[in-house]
Each structure stands twice: as C-alpha cells, then as structure tokens.
Amino acid sequence: MSRLSFKEIRGTEDILPEKIGVWRRMENAAREVFDLYCYEELRTPILEETGLFISGVGETSDIVTKQMFSLADRKGRSLTLRPEGTAPIIRAYLKHRIYKNPIAKIFYMGPFFRSERPQAGRERQFHQIGAEAIGCDNPSMDAEVISLLIHLLNKFGITGGRLELNSVGCSLCQGPYKEKLREYFAGEETPLCPDCQRRLNKNPLRVLDCKRPECQSLIVDAPPLPDYLCNSCSEHFQKVQAILKSLSISYHLHPYLVRGLDYYTRTAFEITHPALGSQNAVAAGGRFDNLVEKMGGELTPAVGFALGMERIILIQEKEKVTAPLETRLSVYLAPQGKEAFQEMVNLLKELRQNGIKSELDYEGKRLKNQLRLANKLNAQYVAILGEEELRRKTITLKNMDTGKQEELPIDLSDCLNFISKVLHLIPPHI
Ligand code: ATP
Ligand code: MG
Q1: What is the per-residue pLDDT across 138-182, written as a single tens digit (0 to 9) for each?
Q2: Boundary residue ending a domain (318, 352, 371)
Q3: Is residue 416 domain-shared with residue 268, that is, in the same domain?
Q4: 276 and 135: one domain?
Q5: How far is the CA of 308 from the centre of ligand 1 (A)?
Q6: Which range of residues forms the domain containing residue 277?
Q7: Is the CB–ligand 1 distance for residue 361 below 6 Å?
Q8: What is the sign, positive or negative, of the torsion defined by CA atoms of 14, 19, 21, 25?
Q9: Is 263 assigned a ligand-binding role in the annotation?
Q10: What H or E segment, with its residue span, contains residue 128?
Q11: Which one of 6, 59, 208, 218 has the fewest CB atoms closer than 10 angstroms to its CB?
C-alpha cells in the first residue's frame, strides 16, 4: 500500500464512527430540549459575504481582526467561512421576514471556523449549538435563555458549571464608561500589551477581555462596568437577577465580563467549568439589542447564547459522564453453517423491517467468537442457530444481560412475535 500523503488540516478533526454516537446523542438531546422551549431550527450556509461578519460581529473584535478564514471567489469578492452563528441568523431573519412573528425563537448547530492556535478545546473547525430569541426586551427572556442553556448542559450530563453574569449596558452608558476606562489605563504605570494599546483607542471595552497576565493585573482594579449603567440598563440588570433568583439559578457577578463580539448590550454571561483547562468557557451569550437595526432591520431587541460542542465532550470525558446509548443493538444473529446462515438472512430482514435493530455474523465465526463480538456490540440478545437447533427447527435466544436462554420456533412470524415481546415492543395485554 502507498503511504498516506494527505493529512487533515491542523485544528480540524475526523469524527470517527466510534465517536459519532456521542455527537448524535448531543444533537438529539438538544433538539428535544429546544422543542420544549418552542425554538425552531434554522440552517444557514457555511459561506457568507465577509462584510456580514465585519458589520455584524464588529471591526474591533478578535474574530474580525485576526480569526476569519476568508477567500476570494472567481470574481474577486471576499467570502468567509462562518466564524459565529448570530450574524448569519439575523441576516436570514431579515431576508425571510421572520420578524412577522412577534418573537422568533431560533436555534442552530453545526461547524464554525476560526483561525486560532489549536490546543485542547480550541480548534479551527469547531462545532456550536446556539439559540437566539429575537423580538423581546423583557428581562424574563434573558433569564429564560440562561435557564434553557443550563437545561441543555444538564441534559448532556453536565453539572458543576459556574454562571458568570454582567451587564455591559447600552451605548448611552458605554460612552462615559469607555472614557473612564481610557483615563484609568492611561494613569497606570505598567503598560498594557500592544494589542490592548490599540484596543484602548478603538474600543476600550475589548481590553477587559484580554487574557494576558500584564493586562489582567490592571483589569482587576479597573472601574467596574455596572457602576456606570444608566437607569434603564440598571433596572433591567436588577430584574434579570431577581428572576434568576426566583428560578433558583445561582450566578456570580463578574463586573469585567464583556463578550468578544462588539454587538452585545446589557446582559452578558458565560458558563465556565472546572473540568476544562485554560479554555474554561463552555458557553457564552448575552443580549444584542442593536444588531438587527445595525444590519438593516428595525430596532429589535434580542438575546442568545452559543455553546462549544467539543468542550462539552471534553467535560463529559473528564467527568466520566455516561450518557445512555442511543439505541442498543437488540439482536445479534449467530448462525452456524451455510443453511443456518440463509435462514438468518431472512430473519434479519424481517427483524429490521419491523424496527428491531439487528446485526448478523457474515463471516462464519465460531460461536464463542460470535458471543464475544455480540458482547462488544452490547447486544441485548443473541439468536443462535446451530446444527442442533436446525434439527429441532428452533432458535436459541440468549439474553446477554442475564445469561438466560430460551428456545423458540424457527417460523419467521412466531420468531418475530417472540422477540418483539421480550424486547417489550408489544405492550402486555390481558
Ligand atoms: P474563548 O474565550 O474561549 O475564545 P469566545 O468568547 O471566543 O471563547 P464565543 O464566540 O462566545 O467564544 O463562542 C461560544 C463558545 O464556543 C465558547 O464558549 C466555546 O465553548 C466555543 N468556542 C469558541 N471558539 C472555539 C474554538 N476555537 N474551538 C472550540 N470551541 C470554541
Ligand atoms: Mg475566542
């Protein structure tokens, strides 16, 4: 065989069949939870015009300044692999006039792309599940979105996260606060990192998001953002907290929490988890009351979140969360010899057509090896058809959990009835 000369691109990953169940279970569980909260799925394209993200995510954001994978089409127009989900959702919301509904509740899931330095929990192609509630400025909706996010995490078997909460205010409160921040950092002797010195001019709020130790040590004593909220932002923030309390959702106020995207207003939140190392945020979100208008629509308040699926899986692995299997293999068919094999091909078809997940040994293995494989596949039952059974026109059905064996007639419909009954597919009746 020739040597393999192509590798996957750094920061991207093949998801192999043995891992795919974990992903599918997460996606299915998410769909179930979203349905409970009346959210509907919207799938937007992977490729968008670059301008969408520049205006939607913001010129001073890390995403736009250094993380976009952009390419030119044949006419020289700049396209970008979507780095985040909110701007495309709002684009679609406006194009398809989804705003006809008073409140649009939308969820999405799929791959996103950012040119970052790959490390555990930080990929260049990663996957997010996200939700946006568009058209509602009630603080209850902020709380509902947070409680939906926590419900999702619990459904994925994750507890022990920490909800960090802040309000970043609106343009009215941000103006004076940004000035205060500039004054504060200018008065400090130790300089900010070169990136932050640029940020200080363009958008000083970005400085608060810097992870570098030299900047962090200055940030901890910076003026706290909530002290500068205008009356209506302050009232909104108080109400969000009161509703969270009444829902028994505990949170930690984090006065320097800002989101990495420029469009956030008022509520900002992040969920961190101790099982994650330095990339400790598993999900983040907040309110973005100006984005719809900025993208050409009417002034429309909105709130949402996104969680990182790879980081969920990291936590599940670290915490040894065993989510229930999607559908267990019901029957593994173990024929001995050609005649038995032929019988079982028919039974296999019958079982599958009746919705019973089944598999057959196509390789003529010995019984011992068939049982070993059935065990590995976590089969509930093994149906054995050997010489003895053929002679007696029966099949032996072995319960792999209890080891108990039963003999049943080889007749296809009798056999199917029996298996359906032991699998509780036919409800017991008097
Ligand atoms: P971080 O501070 O970790 O870079 P972020 O603020 O850039 O996160 P968001 O844009 O808010 O992240 O995305 C929401 C979630 O998506 C994050 O909390 C994280 O779980 C996940 N995420 C973001 N970027 C990546 C990435 N490059 N690889 C894997 N997951 C990611
Ligand atoms: Mg980031």
Answers
A1: 999 999 999 999 999 999 999 999 999 999 999 899 999 999 999
A2: 318
A3: no
A4: yes
A5: 6
A6: 17-170+230-318
A7: no
A8: negative
A9: yes
A10: strand 125-134
A11: 6
